[in-house]
Amino acid sequence: MPLEVLVVEDSSGDIRLTREAFRDVNPFIHLEVAHDGVEAMAFLRRQGVHLNAPRPDLILLDLNLPKMDGRQVLALIKEDDTLKTIPTVILTSSEAEADVLKSYQLQANCYLSKPMHFEAFHALVKCINDFWLTKVKLPQQRDNVDEPEPGAHAGYERSPKKSRGTKSGGTKSGATKSGATKFDATRRNNESDRRQRSAH
Amino acid sequence: MKAIGGSGVPIEVLLVEDNPGDVRLTQEAFLDANPSVHLHVASDGVEAMAFLKREGSHSHDPRPDLVLLDLNLPKMDGRQVLAHIKEDERLKTIPTVILTTSDAENDIAKCYGLQANCYLTKPVQLHAFEALVRSINDFWLTKARLPQTP
Prior knowledge:
By secondary structure, chain A is α/β, with parallel strands linked by helices.
């Protein structure tokens, strides 16, 4: 099951390093790139050419970006009820204490400084993979949630059919209509998932 | 309220957990992983909020650098504690990591909606639990930049 990661980054060198590092550490990651803040928001809102864009499982967001600043992108994500649940990790060369504080005030999920050296950058990408994409429980794609909360925004209703959604939905629709059975099926999946992880 | 820790610049971690067994395992795992961690324990949601707001007997307690929050707690639920932290201008910048046995999809979605910084499930096996505490230390207390105390 591919994990969708959106990298919002204008430096082509950093994009290339990020791509290569993820390819080394986790071939199941599908990396998408937005080169500025405006493109990032269009991707997330599935506007224009991004109509069929997947909803990312994780966003890696640089702060200093052309057209729209990363701080503004972060604010827009965290103000939007359909987007705010996507974990958004700041990955920037800025070491400024004010940027760290401001990012947490805007509800960034976490703040990481880009290391200067290639080896350290590679190690950081591995660390992001090992923690955020392996240990952390990420919210399921909204498309897959069986019973959305009343009043939940439906911004993703027009979403394309995604392999991720089809797989998970298939498991659940295979169960009977009984809520308990559904729950058991989900639990079994989670437990086997946990066993797989602990085996590593 | 107990604190463990060692030499070096102390890192203040608040663990909000009512299960004494899990408290002990977390304390022991942090002692192994990072002796600079001062682990403070609140055993229910009301005590956690008193600690964070420095009320009553907590007037001299430090501001935590990181909160590890269980969801199912006596007196005040972890979801309510999370909502209070993230609604409070002074507290919302403290990274708050959910650490719970619940792997219910509703809890995960709800917590990210309330702006939990991340959601982790407690492994059943001891060695996996210790490994998770090491991961929390390696990621949040080593790699991540935390906001300085305002």
